[in-house]
């Protein structure tokens, strides 16, 4: 190259080249749009994760304080009762010393929290005949909507002065919707990390699942409308598969939101189950295909992962539920007595018994890997009885987990028989088919999926009040038995325990006579225990009642207007006889007698008070608050009317009373029904279960109870 002559350009003629060169100045609007489309969806997600973190923190702090108060209260109660009180009946001791003092400014946080609970969770707003939202849900919904649409439409004025430029908001709205698909899936899952972190049961998150879905429908069509305004041509034409996938996702989610409206679900629930599953899968897959082409697939693949993980965990639980407990080989007499109490039912098969024209009883061994907390529920399906492989319903486990027989300071701890017993109110549908199943003599097969839900953790409370209406005993009974059992085993867990049950006939006491009888035996003297049974079907009660027949029917739990899947008797662990149902009919041959001598002993106990008529909940709760100190828990299970009455009694702030030493009140509500429902349909707002299971799981079945639908979404 060095030997070459230099290249001369002096004699070259000038040449004009006609080339169109684009502007070298970057489009300022495009840079801003890209920045907003990337940052704004993340900022919305930061809001959501911050809120979840705050609720999680409150849950952790609450549990920690509960355990701390429980330990401190055990020590205080252990020293409070002197030997002079040892011979007094627990229900007779009603200390009424002055429990209110001067205002203590240190209790200001307690008063503030209690006031927040009263105003946020106990005041409700009715929306039509189908929805009832508390103030917290209304505010949360409004804030969520404001955040989503503010971040979608803010700063959408172009540099040329065009306001609400679709170049800006179209992609931002689409990205904000896309990044929240994992949230929709998580809120609708049974096994979801949000429930584990916050302590809010998955069935109480269903409202948020539907609310977020409907907001995303509007965001998706805002995105689609903006793109259509700009023109669907070229690479974004409707003939392009990626664009077609986006349209398909939007249409699928829109249709899903329409068929999810409660009146439609109630009219055609089985149709809703299938449509929910099919449209949900179509929406997520189509949205992923649409977003992945624009490098936003990482926002959506967690949705698919969460959905698959939930199904795998549920299938695993169902498989484990098929494994029964094995009989242990004892090595000593003491070990033998304990092992036999736990594994006595290893060879017991599920059994279905007729109690009366209105109730049937199912007995089943406890699955080996079924571990639950008092008040939790499971999803059950019944191959051969259910009309659809997708049909499964949640049932409350109204028994406490198995324990061994021990003696602690002379107090015997209740031993488990190794069985679960479920009382079922016979109506149309699956319970009617189960009643017919008795006559066939065939083995009933049931698949377990659970346990689920988040019942209250009753630790660290000075006073505990349990209120049940009719079949609501299925929820409050295990909480009661657990408190008594822990008191017998480890010392007092609370100073006062009040148990209230409203029933139609006194014979209904036979449902729980064995459990209550065991609980009242060897009861320690360091807990004030009161059981109030209100009988509304007696002649005395009807004579005293000022309510109309329709009002009486509305308050009664066994009202026929509620669906069989919505109205539950539940499961109790019963070592004695079980009485007939609320009708008082005589059982068939081989049935169970109404009221045993053991049940009569319960009625004769000074701790059990029988009242004719309805309970005045407002007066009762005010009396309990007046006798309580520091902290108080109220748990109620019954009809929506019962839940509304309890809320009304507790919704007024008591700021000054708490500053003077009055208790803060925590309320947990479990309510039947959701307004008018079709009597042939199960509760409408739970995601469908797994389809038909592998044949190798199909050996012999376990049993069920009847579903109690929770319309109350928050533990307060």
TrEMBL record:
Residues 570-600 are annotated as: Disordered. The chain crosses the membrane at residues 44-68, 131-154, 166-185, 205-224, 236-259, 271-290. GO terms for molecular function: ferric-chelate reductase (NADPH) activity. Residues 328-458 form the FAD-binding FR-type domain. One of its GO terms (cellular component) is plasma membrane. The keyword Aminoacyl-tRNA synthetase does not apply. Belongs to the ferric reductase (FRE) family. It comes from Leucocoprinus leucothites. The keyword Thylakoid does not apply. Keywords: Cell membrane, Electron transport, Glycoprotein, Ion transport, Membrane, Oxidoreductase, Transmembrane, Transmembrane helix, Transport. SUPFAM superfamilies: Ferredoxin reductase-like, C-terminal NADP-linked domain, Riboflavin synthase domain-like. It catalyses: 2 a Fe(II)-siderophore + NADP(+) + H(+) = 2 a Fe(III)-siderophore + NADPH. This is ferric-chelate reductase (NADPH).
């Amino acid at each position: 190259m060095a030997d070459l002559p230099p290249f001369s350009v002096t004699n070259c003629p000038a040449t004009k080249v006609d080339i169109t060169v684009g502007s070298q100045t970057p489009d300022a609007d495009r840079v801003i749009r890209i920045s907003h489309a990337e940052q704004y969806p993340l900022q919305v997600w930061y809001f959501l994760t911050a809120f979840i973190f705050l609720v999680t923190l409150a849950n952790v702090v609450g549990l920690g304080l509960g355990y701390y108060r429980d330990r401190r209260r055990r020590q205080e109660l252990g020293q409070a009762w002197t030997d002079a009180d040892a011979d007094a009946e627990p229900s007779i001791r009603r200390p009424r010393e002055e429990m209110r003092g001067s205002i203590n400014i240190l209790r200001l946080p307690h008063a503030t929290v209690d006031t927040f609970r009263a105003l946020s969770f106990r005041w409700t707003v009715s929306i039509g005949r189908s929805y009832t939202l508390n103030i917290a849900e209304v505010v949360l919904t409004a804030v969520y909507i404001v955040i989503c649409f503010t971040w979608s439409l803010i700063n959408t004025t172009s540099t040329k002065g065009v306001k609400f430029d679709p170049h800006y908001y179209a992609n931002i709205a689409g990205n904000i919707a896309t990044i929240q698909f994992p949230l929709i899936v998580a809120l609708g899952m049974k096994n979801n990390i949000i429930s584990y972190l916050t302590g809010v049961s998955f069935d109480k998150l269903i409202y948020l699942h539907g609310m977020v879905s409907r907001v995303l429908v509007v965001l998706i069509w805002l995105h689609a409308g903006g793109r259509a305004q700009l023109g669907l041509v070229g690479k974004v034409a409707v003939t392009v598969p990626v664009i077609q996938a986006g349209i398909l996702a939007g249409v699928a989610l829109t249709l899903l939101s329409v068929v999810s409206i409660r009146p439609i679900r109630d009219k055609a629930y089985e149709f809703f189950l299938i449509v929910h599953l099919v449209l949900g899968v179509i929406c997520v897959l189509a949205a992923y295909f649409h977003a992945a082409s624009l490098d936003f697939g990482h926002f959506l693949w967690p949705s698919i992962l969460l959905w698959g993980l939930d199904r795998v965990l549920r299938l695993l639980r169902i498989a484990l539920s098929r494994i029964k407990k094995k009989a242990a080989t004892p090595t000593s007499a003491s070990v033998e007595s304990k092992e036999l109490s736990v594994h006595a039912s290893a060879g017991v098969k599920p059994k279905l018994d007729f109690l009366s024209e209105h109730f049937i009883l199912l007995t089943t061994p406890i699955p080996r890997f079924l571990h639950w907390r008092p008040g939790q529920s499971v999803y059950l399906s019944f191959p051969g009885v259910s009309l659809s492989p997708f049909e499964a319903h949640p049932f409350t486990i109204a028994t406490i987990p198995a324990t061994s027989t021990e003696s602690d300071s002379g107090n015997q701890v209740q031993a488990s028989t190794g069985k679960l017993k479920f009382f079922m109110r016979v109506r149309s549908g699956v319970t009617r088919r189960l009643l017919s199943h008795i006559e066939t003599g065939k083995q009933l097969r049931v698949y377990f999926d659970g346990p689920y839900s988040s019942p209250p953790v009753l630790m660290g409370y000075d006073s505990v009040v349990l209120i049940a209406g009719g079949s609501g005993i299925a929820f409050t009974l295990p909480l009661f038995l657990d408190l008594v059992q822990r008191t017998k085993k480890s010392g007092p867990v609370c100073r006062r325990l009040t148990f209230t049950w409203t029933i139609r006939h006194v014979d209904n006491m036979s449902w729980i006579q064995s459990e209550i009888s065991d609980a009242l035996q060897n009861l320690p003297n360091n807990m004030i225990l009161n059981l109030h049974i209100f009988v509304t079907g007696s002649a005395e009660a009807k004579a005293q009642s000022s309510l109309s027949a329709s009002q009486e029917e509305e308050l009664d739990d066994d009202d026929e207007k509620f669906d069989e899947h919505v109205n539950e008797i539940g499961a109790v662990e019963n070592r004695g006889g079980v009485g007939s149902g609320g009708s008082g009919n005589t059982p068939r041959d081989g049935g169970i007698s109404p009221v045993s001598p053991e049940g009569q002993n319960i009625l004769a106990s000074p701790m059990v008070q029988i009242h004719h008529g309805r309970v005045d909940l407002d007066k009762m709760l005010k009396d309990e608050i007046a006798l309580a100190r520091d902290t108080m828990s109220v748990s109620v299970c019954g009809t929506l009317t019962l839940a509304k009455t309890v809320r009304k009694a507790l919704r007024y702030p008591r700021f000054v009373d708490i500053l003077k030493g009055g208790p803060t009140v925590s309320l947990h509500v479990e309510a039947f029904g959701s307004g008018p429902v079709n009597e042939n349909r199960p509760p409408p707002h739970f995601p469908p279960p797994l389809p038909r299971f592998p044949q190798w799981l199909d050996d012999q079945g376990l049993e069920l109870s009847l579903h109690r639908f929770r319309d109350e979404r928050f533990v307060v």
